[in-house]
Amino acid sequence: MTLVQMQPRPANANPVHRTVGDAMEAAGPQVCDDMTVEVALAVMASARTGHLLVCDEDGLCTGLVTQAGLAAIRNSAAYSDQVRLRDVLGDRGPLTSPVTTMVEAEHAMRCRRLDALPVVDEQGSALGVLALAR
């Protein structure tokens, strides 16, 4: 896997010093954590995206859900149509900062087996998504 690069890299950019902010995608669709899994899957389908950023009632990013992850939850024996995104996300995170180096972010994503990671500012608002390419 290699990291997706959405912005052209200057010829003099040193890959060791590149940051998440240099490579992240735009934030894309954001939904509230009180949304049900079914509605989130419908939003993903209509937006033609494989993930959604999830925010709390204060607008702070609490994580990211993927189509594959929500489909697995929907197909589990314990699933009901009342399950909300906050129920499947648990605690906040994982999240990263735009000033995190690409080396650090890629290592963290590989260790946690993440395909995408929300990028947030100092206040916790979503700025974008760092995604691994397949």
TrEMBL record:
What is the name attached to this protein's record? CBS domain-containing protein
Q: What SUPFAM superfamilies does the record point to? A: CBS-domain pair
Signal peptide span: none
User: Can you tell which superkingdom this protein's organism belongs to?
Assistant: Bacteria
Entries under InterPro entries matching the protein: CBS_dom, CBS_dom_sf, Diverse_CBS-Domain
**CDD domains annotated for this entry?**
CBS_pair_SF (cd02205)
Q: Where is the CBS domain?
A: 31-68
Which PANTHER family would you find in this protein's record?
Answer: CBS DOMAIN-CONTAINING PROTEIN CBSX3, MITOCHONDRIAL, REGULATORY PROTEIN
Q: What are the UniProt keywords, alphabetically? A: CBS domain
Keyword Magnesium recorded: no
**Pfam family membership, one:** CBS
Keyword set includes Transferase: no
